[in-house]
Amino acid sequence: MYAVNVTIKVQNELAKKAIILALKDWSNDLFQNNGLMLRCFVDRTENQVEIFHVFRTKKEMEEVRTTKSNKFWDQIKEMGGQVSRFEGNCEVEVSRGLQDLDLKFK
Q: What is the pTM of this model?
């Protein structure tokens, strides 16, 4: 699996909420068709959010980035937002309760 952590800092809380809503609206397609396995939003401050993504593979993440997400992040930067990210291969562990749901993790 492959993880990407994105930090976004924008002008105000309204801009942050708009970004989160836009990403949530896009989630269905990413989960069904583009290898996204997990997305977690972490509220840092009223104008900053951390977004943690787990994709099945690096290849699927790169396809999403190239065809869809680079433009989204660039638009945030053009509006004065700060976007940074780090990424890498990851292992995913889940609680026994989730294991009992018969979820398939590598």
A: 0.80
